[in-house]
Each structure stands twice: as structure tokens, then as C-alpha cells.
Input
Amino acid sequence: MKKYLIVIIMGVFLSTACESKIENIIAIDVLLTPSEELNKHSILLNSLIKENNPSTLQLDENHIPHITLLQCFVKESDLPEIIKSLEGLFEAVKDESFNASKIVYDKETEDSFAMIQVDNSLVLADVHSRVIDQLKPFIVQNGSQESFVPNPDGSPINKFTVDYVPNFVEKYSYENFDPHISLGTANKLYLDSLARNVFQPIQFKAPSLAIYQLGDFGTAQKKIWVSTP
Output
């Protein structure tokens, strides 16, 4: 009987020890924040899009408008080294002016995902590449639903979001880099009206470079670190 209890106790101990060594993998977005003017304009456009489609993504102070430089899965324990690797990088873009030029969406479908296009530039493309170079040693591929900030209602993170993150470097970077601010999905005719009557092109400077943990629909939800001038 004693041997049996010892075996059970050792089994529980070993199981607990193994679980404690499991690395927590999180989905992060290394991003540039827009100016206050562009931030407010993005939230306005998103609120109007949500009037047309309430189920689309939300932009607010807890789901910030942003320009993604890199999305990836990393070990949470590596965050101090990741932050250290990015320190000083904001200096390369803090004095640069960028252009939010238009709303882009698929005009051939009834419903389409809309974005504010941020015109690419040599400086923007360079900082995008440098962020990837700095974080490549830390990128892992084995993220999951649990890597994201959970939805308040307990619903699963949508599959497109989970699949998008590990493919960002291969499919959406370098020559495929498309800087933008995501706005959400709405009816094409409604987006036509927003593009004509509401959207305003905005020249802006990025006030910060930051790391956020991703939520559903690729929203930047949990602030991990921010670099400012």
C-alpha cells in the first residue's frame, strides 16, 4: 500500500514539474501607433462600419488602431530580450512623415474587409525589415488559440487570425509588406459611401513603436511595451 501511494505521489510530482516547464506562447504585434488625428479618424470609420456590420472588429482604447510591422508567436519568457532588441529602433522613424492616403477594399465582392492604406516608403519598409531581423531568433511556430487575448464571451479566436500570425513573415512581409490600419468588414456600397464622403487623407508622424498581444481579428489589445522619443 505504501509503495502504491509513493508511486502516485511521484507521478503527480513529475506531472506537475513537466507542466511547469511548458513554455507560454503568445501572439504579438510589433507596431507603429498613428497620430491622435489618425487614431480618432480610424475609430470613427470603424464605428460607422460597425453600424453596417455589428459583428466586425472593434477599434477603441482597448483595441488600438495601428500599423503592423510584424506579427508572430514568441515565448513569453523571451519578452525581456525581445524588448531589448527593439530599443532604439524608433529613432529611425520618429521624425518621418507618413501618408494615410485612402480606404482600400475589394470592390468586386458584396462584402469586403476595409483598411486605411498607409503609403509604403523606404523608411517604413526598412524599419519593417529591421524588426523582422531583430526578432527572427525568437519566433516560434507552435502558437494556438491560447496565445491570444481571449474573447470576453469565451468564443474561440477565429481560424483566419490563428493561421495568419505564423505566416506573416513568409506571406505578408518584405516585397509583400502592405502597411495599413484595419477597419473591419462591411457592405461594398456602404464602403463606397464612406470612401467618398467620410474618409480624409492624413499626413502623420508615428508617436511610438510598441508591442501588443494580439486578440481576435488581429486586434492589438494588451500593451506589453512601448518606445517613445
Observations:
- The beta strands are 25-33, 67-75, 98-104, 111-118, 139-140, 180-187, 202-204, 208-214, 220-227.
- The chain has one domain: 23-227.
- The domain at 23-227 is CATH 3.90.1140.10 (Cyclic Phosphodiesterase; Chain: A,).
